[in-house]
Amino acid sequence: xxxxxxxxxxxxxxxxxxxxxxxxxxxxxxxLIKGVAITDHDTLNGYLQAKKFAKPYEDIIILPxxxxxxxxxxxxxxxxxxxxPHMNTIEEVVDFAKEYNGLIIVPHPYRxxxxxxxAQRINIDAVETLNSRSTxxxxxMAEKLAFAKNVPRIAGTxxxxxxxxxxxxxxxxxxxxxxxxxxxxxxxxxxIVANMKTYI
Length: 200
Ligand SMILES: [Zn+2]
Ligand SMILES: [Zn+2]
Prior knowledge:
Elements: E1 2-8, H1 20-29, E2 35-41, H2 45-54, E3 61-70, E4 73-78, H3 90-99, E5 103-106, E6 126-131, H4 136-149, E7 153-156, E8 168-172, H5 178-187, E9 190-194
Parallel strand pairs: 1-2, 2-3, 5-6, 6-7
Antiparallel strand pairs: 1-8, 3-4, 4-5, 8-9
Helix pairs in contact: 1-2
The structure holds zinc ion (ZN) (2 copies).
């Protein structure tokens, strides 16, 4: 089992103060959490930097991801190391993820920039039902969506500042291996953990 935060932004997102090196150092020092998915807005550069900094460390895992800003709202692809210039709609992002074997995650569906009920009409792999920046009600609505779609539920801090890191995470039944982690998330072998009472 591996503990992993599946939604983190670095300075490459433009609205985050988390430097990839700082993120890797914090992850390495963390007693429990050993993985992070870097889901910057519309760029893989933060992931590529973090991957470089993480090279000397054998017991942590950095997952590639991208939170795509479409005209309908935010949608995340996990497990891809590139992006397409043709991702203006959620349908285009779903097609891209299918082609490149990525996982489609619906982040904060009922917050500003969330895709909300539009998620009903596309194929998705999981819903983020615990986002540490969303309200309790927004997370509850996300949970309802996950049940309606019959897909796994995951957590993400959506951290944009170092102090936002690690307050929620996931326990995934997998080894420190990217494909195994992604496969387990897809199969629902994942449990949400809230580190701080305020997020329960
Ligand atoms: Zn977002
Ligand atoms: Zn985000």
